[in-house]
Design brief:
Elements: E1 3-10, H1 22-31, E2 34-41, H2 44-56, E3 61-66, H3 68-78, E4 84-89, H4 95-99, H5 106-115, E5 124-126, E6 129-131, H6 139-147, H7 155-163
Parallel strand pairs: 1-2, 1-3, 3-4
Antiparallel strand pairs: 5-6
Helix pairs in contact: 1-5, 2-3, 6-7
Length: 164
């Protein structure tokens, strides 16, 4: 039996990781008997709009190919909906996927997407926004602010934040 899942792919995820291309991802999905539709998202707004459309159409499962930032963005739309989120780890660190024991290896992650039962997870909420894994204050929060958000992640910037 072939399973179906749309996959939203953040083409900018993973400052230190080369994301799998469309053809490679489709080939891997076919090998595990998973029919996919890849939806490229070039901006947070495009991803949110695509997710809102999938939720309104009653899509049962959607996967995100990206990192923690991509997953965090998807959670804002999918929280409290009837659409389950699958993660294909394509980011730099993927803390949330690691905490959920989602394999970083794409063929294994695709098998998990195909075979796994939907499980609810707890989310935190601050100021109207959901977060998936942790919140910090004090030195931890200051270091993250120095390190920065977005696509400008690099080793030297991390060293700078740590040294400060």
């Amino acid at each position: 039996m072939t399973h179906f899942c749309p996959i939203l792919m953040n083409t900018h995820a993973g400052a230190m990781h080369v994301p799998s291309g469309r053809e490679q991802l489709q080939r891997m999905a076919r090998e595990v008997d998973l029919e996919i539709e890849i939806i490229h998202t070039e901006s947070p707004e495009a991803m949110t709009k695509a997710l809102e459309k999938l939720v309104s159409e009653g899509t049962e499962r959607v996967a995100i190919a990206g990192g923690d930032g991509t997953v965090q963005l998807a959670v804002q739309t999918l929280a409290h909906s009837n659409t389950a989120l699958g993660i294909l780890s394509q980011g730099t660190f993927n803390n949330f996927a690691s905490a959920l024991r989602v394999p970083h290896n794409l063929p294994a992650a695709l098998k998990m997407l195909r075979d796994s039962m939907v499980q609810e997870v707890d989310l935190g909420k601050v100021g109207g926004r959901y977060f998936t894994e942790s919140a910090g204050v004090g030195l931890f929060a200051d270091a993250l602010a120095l390190y920065g958000q977005g696509t400008n992640k690099n080793f030297f910037r991390g060293l700078y934040a740590t040294a400060r």
